[in-house]
Write a structure and sequence with these properties.
This protein is α+β, with helices and mostly antiparallel strands and 441 residues long. 27% of the residues lie in helices and 33% in strands. It contains ten helices and 18 strands. β10 and β11 form a beta hairpin. The two termini are 33 Å apart.
């Protein structure tokens, strides 16, 4: 594979950055481009106060949620534990979408559930990002003693001397706050790869150390677009470390594994729901601005439940949850996930963007015809008595066409699904399942 340009989204759970409701005004001149490094920047600054209609924000969250569960359905058959960031995938591909045209753009919009037109979509992402970026300050006002970390930054790493379309750079600058660092992939692709990996590692709390593996960057690479998200938060109702003890967890095949099981000493009031073959509880983080939804299917019915899990059922579960006194016991766990998503996304309807000769990314550059050669996603999650830390990265690799006693006691001792979401907007930041909490040890 000879990547012509790589678009990357690097994520550690929460944190984001967005823009305005109107299309970016035209630049007064083309972006600057230094022939020997430095920065190539749009003449536009990021819009810090987008005037996005509330209906567009609601629509974006609903569309992103629909994609989140479509993707879950597409990858759940791979087996084992599962962790990914729907928001990272949506954001990385939204920035890629900014350079797409024709049927390529249409297929991306359909697969990603982008029902807003581009002139409203990118401002809506900007508004959501700015909203999420305000969460740490909001949490500090509510729970100053508990640290709540949430950040997101975007950057572009382009080949020095290559002409990028001013409108493309304007859109990313105005709506995503992304400027372009100039590097020399032709002379030293490995130095560029290491620099990008170091930046992504620093921005994700060093949870994503090898964002771009060897072979992804070579002398044909022309662009790497990166977003980095980091989230770390403590539970509003922490588990008691003194109560953590080894306990059995029953796998799907009926076998058992001993794993550290956390327990709450008290039974706080939590949002709880139950239905035909499942129970669910919401575990809030300090400040109540984010929460983990733990959905536990009845023993022997995980496959049945998972097969029917989509955005509609997820919303029904959320709507059914009511305040109850709940004592929760669940395993501590930590694991990573990695996906090569070209065939997955093609199967979901994005065929043309991956097809040389058909893909239309002329909005990025007119100097070469580009297509997506691979989409790579990596993620991490760690849950313990104190709280949660999570990270994920999405890389969209683009190549030249020339290249090839309580009320309830909920004991989580069997496979379960989890959702980490931003409470004010409903945005799903992470979604996954735990089939074997010991698998990541």
């Amino acid at each position: 594979m000879n990547p012509w340009c790589v678009l990357v989204s690097s994520l550690t759970l929460l944190g984001l950055t967005l823009s305005s409701c109107a299309a970016p005004p035209p630049s007064s001149s083309p972006p600057t481009a230094s022939p020997s490094g430095g920065m190539a920047v749009s003449r536009l600054e990021r819009n810090p106060a987008p005037a996005v209609p509330p209906a567009d924000s609601v629509r974006l969250t609903a569309d992103n949620t629909a994609f989140a569960f479509d993707f879950y359905s597409a990858v759940r058959g791979e087996g084992g534990n599962l962790i990914y960031s729907p928001y990272s995938l949506s954001l990385a591909l939204a920035m890629t979408y900014a350079g797409a045209g024709g049927e390529t753009a249409a297929q991306m919009a359909e697969t990603l559930h982008f029902t807003l037109p581009p002139e409203r979509l990118h401002p809506a992402f900007n508004a959501l990002d700015l909203d999420l970026a305000a969460r740490p300050a909001q949490a500090a006002e509510v729970e100053p003693q508990n640290r709540f970390e949430l950040s997101l930054v975007n950057s572009l790493w382009g080949q020095q001397g290559l002409g990028f379309q001013p409108d493309f750079l304007d859109t990313l600058a105005f709506h995503y706050g992304a400027g372009m660092r100039l590097v020399d992939y032709v002379a030293d692709p490995e130095a560029a790869r290491l620099a990008i990996n170091q930046w992504a590692s620093q921005e994700t709390g060093r949870r994503i150390e090898e964002l771009l593996p060897r072979g992804i960057i070579d002398t044909d690479t022309r662009l790497v677009l990166v977003n980095a998200i980091f989230f770390k938060a403590g539970w509003l109702f922490p588990f008691d470390e003194q109560l953590t003890a080894a306990a059995p967890f029953t796998r799907l095949d009926g076998s058992q594994v001993q794993t550290p099981r956390m327990a709450m000493r008290e039974a706080p009031t939590l949002a709880y729901g139950s239905g035909n073959g499942w129970q669910a509880v919401a575990l809030p983080y300090a400040g109540r601005l984010a929460e983990m939804i733990v959905i536990v299917p009845e023993a022997g019915r995980f496959a049945e439940f998972e097969a029917g899990l989509d955005a509609e059922r997820y919303n029904q579960i959320l709507a059914s949850m009511q305040p109850r006194s709940v004592q929760v016991e669940m395993p501590a766990f930590e694991f990573t996930g990695e996906f090569m998503l070209r065939e997955t996304l093609r199967g979901m309807g994005m065929d043309e963007p991956f097809t040389p000769g058909l893909a239309d990314f002329s909005g990025m550059t007119s100097e070469e015809a580009l297509f997506i050669s691979q989409v790579i996603h990596k993620a991490f999650i760690g849950v313990d008595e104190a709280g949660t830390e999570a990270a994920a990265s999405t890389a969209v690799v683009m190549s030249r066409e020339a290249a090839t006693i309580p009320d309830v006691v909920l004991t989580v001792d069997r496979p379960f699904v989890f959702v980490i979401r931003d409470v004010p907007t409903g945005t799903i930041l992470f979604l996954g399942r735990v089939l074997d909490p010991a698998a990541g040890e």
